[in-house]
Amino acid sequence: MPARSWRRSPLATCTGVLVIVLALTGCASTPPGPGSAAVVTVDALRSTGRAATELNTQIIYPGVLDRVPGGPALLADYAAPKIRLMLGTDGAYLPDHPPTLPAGWTKGAWDFRTIDELVTATFAAGARPVLNIGYMPDWMWNCATAQPFDATFAPFGEYAARLVSYYNRGSFIAEDGRVITNPAGTAHRVDTWEIWNEPDLWTLACVGPTGKGPGLPSLSPATYVAVWNALAPRMRAVDPTIKLAGPTTARGVEGNAYAYLDLLMRSGDPKPDIATLHGYGSHDERDLDRCLFDGYASGSGCLADGIPSLTKMLTRIQTSAPGRPTWVTEANALASYGIDAKARNWGPLGAAWRASAFARLSAMGVDAIFDYSFVHPGGDQFSAVDPTTGTRLLPYWTNRELARAFPVGATIVASGTDRRGIDTLAVRLAGGAINVLIVNRIVASASDVGGAGQGLTIELQLAGVTSAGELSVRSLDAGTPLDSGPVTRKVGAGTSVTLALGGYSATIVSYEPAVARAPSEATR
What we know:
By secondary structure, the protein is of the alpha/beta class. The protein contains ten helices and 22 strands. The longest helix has 18 residues.
């Protein structure tokens, strides 16, 4: 999970980064050079599967969304089907709030106001909550030795069962016999619960209300499975219908993350319904642009393995947990421990990174990606909307447009390109419309850190459709108007279009079939 010290950086802008050759003009951050044309082909008649990747988000801290001008309305318009909420004891931003992990500091101090605020906001936005029980309450640890007081984790299991009962039965009986009632009754039931947050990294348990405690080291795979086996049966006993998700590891193949799921699938009882992990381009803001996209495959000098680490780990997950949904419950270009002065998460590179990850993970059949995050008190680094002004940032428009253009259930059709650094995804919607995603993630220089990307010309060729259909284009790049979102540009009838991409970008080309007219209308 990203760290908690931040500073703000401006987002450089340019208008008209996408140029439709011979039709539209504008500026480009890096003009397409000679010999840079690439061909993208789409065969609308050759299906390769069904789109399954749902784009979701998360809100980690309370008291933030309501402070954003128009925040609840922006969240509703964003229309994420699911919102992940993490229960923890981090009170660094809001000392007047109890922790989102109820009774997280003191045994018996049951206070759900903070997490209820987030759950209520989730339902008000038309979404379903996914509750992540981030770690064990502080009073269950010997913080001085970093060891649990009960190595069986049975008290933690009883605690988790009470959380499920609070939301899914409407009340629970506390340790002292009190009945703790949910004001919403069972109207805000929680369908999916994620057990622990990043067991392969340290946690914020034992940091205390001041946020200055030591935290606790990572769990071994065996300890994580012991936690799972203490919680999962007790939670399932309260509500047999809930879905249980894990192991929610932070590191991919670079670490030992695969060992957690492998052991969980062998020894977990019950086994997880959903396999989850986190995926970032890098955890270090010093990393090169090319490393965020292609990692070590792009050459030496990378501090992390970028999207390839994520896809490799997902391949392992799908092999270890066959038939189970796979969710990436945190995703972003950077999870840096310092703010990225180049604004890559919320700039054009971030748009290209999100779209590239979406295209690649969609092809793998990944079921959900949860962007980190919708709004963050530290600023724009991990926000889709600015937490102070409510301005919609480029991540807002990127995920919103991808979700609408490539919905779950659409038919994926064959697409490809002859150029490395270009990703494609194409779907056919009910009624015959075709949407094509073209991602330009080509870096201008191997040494770029926060560069503009390399411009080039794209020739898109559609097969399996008639030339009477209408083409339109919208772009997510440095020129996207943040107040109103990408502008749809009509190209005209046809099955091909030439585009000039000015740098890092995600471009959506839409083909709308001609509307058939009745014979009497056609002859008027």
